[in-house]
Design brief:
Length: 162
């Protein structure tokens, strides 16, 4: 049976739990997986006081923007790896996270980070044997593009004991 939004796969359930509850930094950001579309996953963030850079204007901190883009890019790489190289179990697939590390991250800040909530999305443009390239975007709740990004991820060889 194919997973649907009402019937997610074991991997999707486990991935959501890891990203929303088990990764301390994602929990700190309050990130919520909005879409696990393998071609363009999305992550949502609600504006909170702790995330504000300019208290007089209520703008999202640039570090939060960069972190959200980096996180959704890693998620996109993992989703693409699942599509290209499916593992036998959900836990084996989640272990693929250990193979991914950010090599380069570029963020273009296009507009002030104003909004009540934000959606970060990413698409893998190339998944090679050693490097993956990703394009990302962050939009506010009104649909304005706040920032875009590009990232390269190192894909480490799988450990024999993994």
């Amino acid at each position: 049976m194919m997973p649907t939004p009402s019937n997610p796969s074991e991997f999707q359930v486990a991935l959501r739990q890891v990203m929303e509850d088990r990764v301390p930094f994602c929990r700190l950001l309050g990130s919520k997986l909005r879409s696990l579309d393998p071609e363009r996953p999305e992550m949502a963030l609600a504006m909170r006081e702790e995330m504000i850079r300019n208290f007089s204007h209520g703008m999202l901190h640039g570090g939060v923007i960069a972190s959200a883009l980096d996180t959704v890019a890693g998620l996109a790489v993992l989703r693409k790896m699942k599509h290209e190289d499916p593992q036998s179990t959900a836990m084996a697939q989640l272990r693929q996270f250990a193979r991914i590390s950010t090599l380069d991250l570029r963020v273009d800040y296009l507009k002030p980070g104003r909004g009540k909530s934000f959606i970060a999305s990413a698409a893998v443009t190339r998944l090679g044997r050693r490097v993956a390239n990703v394009q990302m975007a962050l939009h506010n709740d009104e649909g304005s593009c706040i920032a875009t990004g590009a990232a390269a991820f190192m894909l480490h060889a799988a450990r024999p004991d993994a």
